[in-house]
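Mods, move this if it's the wrong board.
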Amino acid sequence: MINTYRFSKAILILLMMITIIIGCKKKTTVKEKTPNETSTITDVEGNVYKTVKIGNKWWMAENLKVKVYNDSTPISEVKATDNDTVWANKKIGAFCKVEETSMRYGLFYNWYAISNSKKIAPIGWHIPTDEEWKELEIELGMNEAEANRTAWRGENERDKIIEKNSNAWSNVLEMPVGNNESGFTALTSGCRLFNGSIGDSQTAFWWTATLNGEEVWYRNIAANHTDIFRYYTYKTYGFSVRCVKD
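Not the wrong board. Structure tokens:
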């Protein structure tokens, strides 16, 4: 004959064990991403930049804004009041301001400035190659085949590098965008075109250190795309610069 008391007790213990197991499973599925390690670097002029470790590489988390090479030689400045042809005809290193009243967006540099042997990257850092940009994109979730393509590639990698819920990006789309999961913190800096005119401000462009014949590989993101653009262009464009630790 079944002992009712023992049977009921066994059922109760079993139910308690199931509850504990389910509770433990629920707890283990909730896992928040640990923020990437951060630090700072200082350039030759004393400008301090935030940095972030993405994968196994340290990246600047701000655009470069130095106005001299590492030996303190001034980089040629093209002012906003100068004719567009002044920028277009520069065949030496040059920079121009993104905004006259703020250095928040860094500076635009032509290729001749970033490729100068006197160097503009902070000591111990360098301009990232096309391959290093691919490594960053793969770390963000892009697969290798996509990273090797040209034009728009990937899916939502842009949101992982743009300033979280930035007004500059969000206002364009009239909705919150970006989570800055990587800590890269890209801003809508725009660019300066090869003919000297100013490009779309709802974008961001960065040089790589890699030539493609007589042109140079670069990266671009835009408010109306969640992926990342890869292509090559003329050396007289004015793009932003991010540096990578040696």
